[in-house]
Amino acid sequence: MLTASPRPSPVTPTIDLSAPGVQHGHLRLPYSRDDSAWGSVMIPICVVANGEGPTALLTGANHGDEYEGPAALFELARSLDPAEVSGRVIILPALNYPAFRAGTRTSPIDKGNMNRSFPGRPDGNVTEKIADYVTRHLVPLADIVLDFHSGGKTLDFLPYAAAHELPDKAQEARCFAAVAAFSAPYSMKMLEIDAVGMLDTTVEEMGKVFVTTELGGAGTASATSIGVARRGAGNLLRHAGILAGTPETAPTRWLDMPSADCFTFAGDDGLIVFEHDLGAPVRAGDVIVRVYPVGKTGLAPAEYRAAMDGVLAARHVPGLIKAGDCLSVLAVLREAP
Ligand code: CA
């Protein structure tokens, strides 16, 4: 297992993370390459601070093809007035900046998947160096961390904020209280396929309040999903006491992913034909999606059926799939925690 090394981070912030007021700058990470011998990766960062209070760390584009986070956070960084703030807000709208600029999930430099690279390495690849800086220099400053996700180019999700089941039940309750405050249309108790290397796990293991989201996907963002992201970020800052006032709550439906039976993976290549749209109720045994062979006509599709009663919470996009791809995710309605 990787552990944070005492080796110093190569990342240098161009702003003072502890100064009051509004600062716009970069995390500068040296990156020597063919077109710039002594070049750098310049990751945008904004800090808005005023007086005493908690610190929130808000991150977008952990995966580079997910846009609700950047859309909400570039605007928040531009508009947040320090006079309204009690404490500090650290905003990184595009955490995996090389991936964000390329419009890809992973970094074009090293194929690094940011949310499989934590806690990172100061002597690793570019993605691991960014992760290491976040782990050792940003998360420790934070009381609450919000990491925006959506489905990227190959998944589409119901809009939800989420937290995880945690061994520390008091911490878990604080995380779900923050999810409730975010007030997305859906609120999820989320099960991960593989939690190793995630920012989520790193923050949770430090005992912090952590909220993640899946707010849509398909490689874009809608006016509605961006609205959910903007309102949620503001609500979380109000919930933390960094902004005055109470969260602007809206109705939310609580969902649970009770087991790995929630996930369906394609066993076939082909054309996906869904029987249900996101949010639709399904019953155990219902056909969710058919996968048609596309090499010739006359062949029957493979049928994928629901393993439980629930709602369709995520689906593959766009229209073709390969064996092994995640085809769909079901979730079950539950009582609010
Ligand atoms: Ca993601």
TrEMBL record:
Pfam families xref list: AstE_AspA_cat
TM region positions: none
Domain spans labelled Succinylglutamate desuccinylase/Aspartoacylase catalytic: 53-239
Cofactor: Zn(2+)
Xref: CDD domains: M14_ASTE_ASPA-like (cd06252)
UniProt entry keywords in alphabetical sequence: Hydrolase, Metal-binding, Zinc
UniProt xrefs under NCBIfam families: ectoine_eutE (TIGR02994)
Listed name of the protein: N-alpha-acetyl-L-2,4-diaminobutyrate deacetylase
Species whose genome carries this gene: Bosea robiniae
Highest classification ranks of the organism: Bacteria, Pseudomonadati, Pseudomonadota, Alphaproteobacteria, Hyphomicrobiales
